[in-house]
Write a structure and sequence with these properties.
This protein has 299 residues and is an alpha+beta fold. It folds into 2 domains: 120 residues, no CATH class; 152 residues, Leucine-rich Repeat Variant, CATH 1.25.10.10. The protein is 48% helix and 17% strand. Helix 5 runs antiparallel to helix 6, helix 5 packs parallel to helix 7 and helix 11 runs parallel beside helix 13. The protein is globular, with a radius of gyration of 21 Å. The relative contact order is 0.10.
Length: 299
């Protein structure tokens, strides 16, 4: 970032002199943020930052502290490091770069270790842009294709055989609604056979658009299914999938699956992957720490 210790000291100041009722004040100029706060929960500060930069902010692990102090025109990554006392972070950017005035950040993930209990918490969700074109007859902005609608109706019939057929039909449709539905099935269906079929469908669909749906399987009770989810995420080789592997590093209870995530991150050359590998050098299991250190040493 081109910022040394002198810059950091000039950017971050204690709460001395702030009024007791100062609350939270924040402004964003380009890729720099200014914050003034006394006693505001860090989650609330992060949510406001997400709102102002129009980005999704996701927390893995606990962030219970409050923030009192000033941040003056600091680059967003440095401000986040200061606010969260050095939590690991991954940024997902808009690949289109459509808005030159925006930060380009569409998602921020912040991680702290919470092995076995790291359910993601979304503290900021950007507003969905209005969809162009005529609305659907039911008033929804997005028209659901007929094949997807029929597949969803079949799923609602209930029996396992009908749900399996529905998953096959949703894979064939592979539109936005169908992929989202497969993610919900992967997360919520009571039958592991149906969840595995949904996972297989998402893996075959692949690509960036399948990643949010694949993430729904990271908390599955079936260890083998979670392992396939980790492999499927690694196959996409995108910023979003790297961010998802961070959830494995910080929250997956099975050390072998954390090791699997480390092995996939070792193949990814991004700074985000490096940050997560550095975090994995603090893993509770020595062999995971060693693998992460080896991966960093070979870069």
């Amino acid at each position: 970032m081109g910022c040394g210790l002198v810059w950091l000291c000039s950017c971050f100041a204690p709460a001395d002199g702030l009024a007791a009722d100062s609350g939270l004040k924040m402004s964003v100029e380009g890729d720099r943020v200014t914050v003034e706060s006394r006693g505001t929960p860090v989650t609330a500060v992060l949510a406001e930052l997400g709102r102002q930069i129009d980005a999704r902010v996701v927390l893995i692990g606990a962030f219970p502290e409050t923030y009192s102090g000033r941040i003056i025109a600091a680059p967003i990554p440095e401000a986040l490091e200061h606010l969260t006392s050095g939590a690991a972070m991954v940024f997902v950017h808009d690949p289109s770069g459509a808005d030159p005035e925006a930060t380009g950040i569409v998602e921020v993930r912040l991680y702290r270790y919470a092995i076995g209990r790291a359910e993601p918490v979304v503290v900021s969700q950007p507003e969905q842009p209005a969809t162009s074109g005529p609305p659907a007859e039911d008033g929804n902005a997005r028209m659901v294709p007929e094949s997807t609608r029929i597949a969803l109706e079949k799923y609602a019939e209930g029996p396992v055989s009908a749900r399996l057929d529905s998953v096959h039909a949703l894979e064939s449709s592979a539109d936005e609604t169908a992929i989202s539905a497969l993610g919900q099935i992967l997360r919520d269906d009571e039958d592991v056979q149906v969840r595995r079929r949904a996972l297989d469908a998402l893996r075959r669909i692949g690509g960036e658009r399948a990643v949010p749906a694949l993430e729904q399987g990271l908390g599955d009770e079936d260890r083998d299914l979670r392992g396939v989810v980790v492999a499927a995420l690694a196959e996409t080789q995108t910023e979003r999938s790297v961010a998802s592997l961070g959830q494995v590093i910080f929250g997956e209870p099975d050390g072998e699956l954390r090791l699997l995530a480390v092995s996939f991150l070792a193949e990814h050359e991004s700074e985000a992957a490096r940050a997560l590998l550095e975090a994995a050098t603090q893993d509770p299991e020595g062999w995971v720490r060693e693998a992460a250190s080896d991966a960093l040493g070979s870069r």
